[in-house]
């Protein structure tokens, strides 16, 4: 026989049980607000919530010229640099940074359908090769000018595009003033130099650095030669090593045919102004370029910066007094540059 609990007490016990069950449900099945996400950015900044179906759209925030948090190395590096300017979409950005007693200025260029890169030739001339394969201007004349003059000239204009930045790159001689390296413009092969490394940009937005013969250049929509390679498959070219290590490769790792290789080593090792283009890829597979000029920074330090920017390969260009770049037509470098045969221009297509 049991003692009957009065009705009010039974109701109170039932209520306590209900509350306990609810607490257990909260522990094992927390309430959700909108769709859940997992942030892959180490900084822990959450992605914006996804609006539920039928909800009123939220007004888009004003565009701020600042890198979006990203898991890639390049965005982490950029947070320590000073953003100078960018296009509103952030596809092309211009930064400055103090490095190892000197400074660098660099453009970050996302390769997609809105961005167009193209070699701009001095005076709008056309480079080519003579019967021996040596470099010439096809009109038989000499053409040299500064990148600032190129950028402001009518021949640099492209219909439906805005020229944001440009960097000198190709080497030239005194007698033959056209680019010694490979040149491809809008899929047309103008000059091939398989003995010097080149930057190749494909029509599907990929970037490659390497040695290209005429056959291999068939996939390049744009190409410009330079050299030597200073970063190759994540390893840095180092004049002080004679064999490959975990971090370094001997200088001139691709064996490019520079006659004045000792001078190239001296410039690389010293604090001369330098020009470099690096190639990297975001985690989603999109390629980007880092177009960099330096002042007062040694080559090993620069190669380390390119690695920190997420680049796996990097190609040196003409340097010393030839080093120069412009952003929106204004010179980026502090020194007075000499005249050069060409520049790699970065254009943004009109929306």
Helix-strand blueprint:
Elements: H1 7-28, H2 73-78, E1 82-86, E2 92-99, E3 102-110, E4 115-121, E5 127-129, E6 135-137, H3 147-152, E7 161-168, E8 183-185, E9 188-191, E10 198-202, E11 207-210, E12 220-225, E13 229-232, E14 235-238, E15 248-250, H4 261-269, E16 274-281, E17 287-295, H5 299-308, E18 311-316, E19 325-327, E20 330-331, E21 342-349
Parallel strand pairs: 14-15
Antiparallel strand pairs: 1-2, 2-3, 3-17, 4-21, 5-6, 7-19, 7-21, 8-9, 8-12, 10-11, 10-12, 13-14, 13-18, 16-17, 16-18, 19-20
Biggest sheet overview: 9 strands, mixed
Strand order of the largest sheet: 1-2-3-17-16-18-13-14-15
- What shape does the CA trace take? globular
**Strand runs, count:** 21
Overall pLDDT confidence: 83
User: In percent terms, what proportion of residues is strand?
Assistant: 25-35%
What sequence of helices (H) and strands (E) makes up the elements? HHEEEEEEHEEEEEEEEEHEEHEEEE
Binned, the helix content reads 10-25%
The secondary-structure class comes to: alpha+beta
The first-to-last residue Cα distance is 86 Å
User: Helix segment count?
Assistant: 5
- pLDDT < 50 stretches: 1-71
Rg over CA atoms, rounded to whole Å, is 28 Å
